[in-house]
Design goal:
alpha/beta, Rossmann fold, 7-stranded parallel sheet, two-stranded parallel sheet, about 20% strand
Length: about 220
């Protein structure tokens, strides 16, 4: 039996990851890193208030670390602020938990992540992936979802569009286009936990089409 640690559990995918970890028989304890307590109660759940600007607060022992941190440039307010949330914080989380014995790191990245991209968002995501590869985790899993479908407390235009077109136009996303089909938050979380359950050595990249296939669609 293992301990899971989740960063970003108040977000769209992080919330589903939390629910699935709590329901899983693979984990006897689920730790969530929070800025303020979440309205969730469960016998396996432990909430730890942390300050991401103080990396030492992230030094928590766990077997599997699920990183669902992420924001938008609009919400962050600047490229520098975005990079802090989407690169600096995940890297500090990885380093601190690795030092405490974590063997698996499971990252929610994004379609198009590429360290050489001319698009700032995609470049930061790619730089994070590349840097994580240099850390000696036994298992590194990177999932790259397309537009997400789910219920957020904040409004994101792209995701709202994805929800509108996903059902009536879903038949268009087959073959190579399956890579761009909007994907449910529950499907992304499911992919993360499936990889964690069947943990193998090395780096596993799960693209959007694979996320959908792993959900049985």
């Amino acid at each position: 039996m293992k301990t899971a640690l989740i960063a970003g559990a108040s977000g769209l995918t992080g919330k589903q990851c939390l629910y699935q970890c709590l329901e899983s028989n693979d984990y006897f304890k689920v730790i969530v890193l929070v800025r303020k307590q979440l309205p969730v109660k469960h016998a396996k759940l432990e909430q730890v208030v942390v300050d991401y600007d103080r990396p030492e607060t992230l030094a928590i022992a766990a077997d599997d670390v699920f990183c669902c941190l992420g924001t938008t440039i609009k919400k962050a307010g600047s490229q520098d602020a975005f990079r802090k949330v989407d690169f600096v914080y995940p890297m500090e989380l990885a380093k601190q938990t690795l030092a405490k014995g974590a063997t698996g790191f499971f990252l929610v990245s994004a379609i198009g992540a590429n360290k050489d991209s001319s698009i700032f968002y995609s470049r930061v995501k790619g730089e994070l992936e590349e840097t994580l590869r240099q850390l000696p985790f036994k298992t590194l899993c990177i999932v790259r979802p397309s537009l997400l479908i789910g219920t957020r407390t904040e409004f994101r235009l792209g995701e709202r569009i994805a929800q509108i077109i996903s059902k009536p136009l879903g038949f268009l996303f087959f073959g190579p286009l399956k890579q761009y089909k909007p994907v449910k938050d529950t499907e992304v979380a499911n992919a993360l936990l499936l990889i964690a359950k069947n943990k193998t050595s090395g780096t596993t990249i799960v693209d959007n089409a694979m996320i959908i296939e792993m959900s049985g669609q």
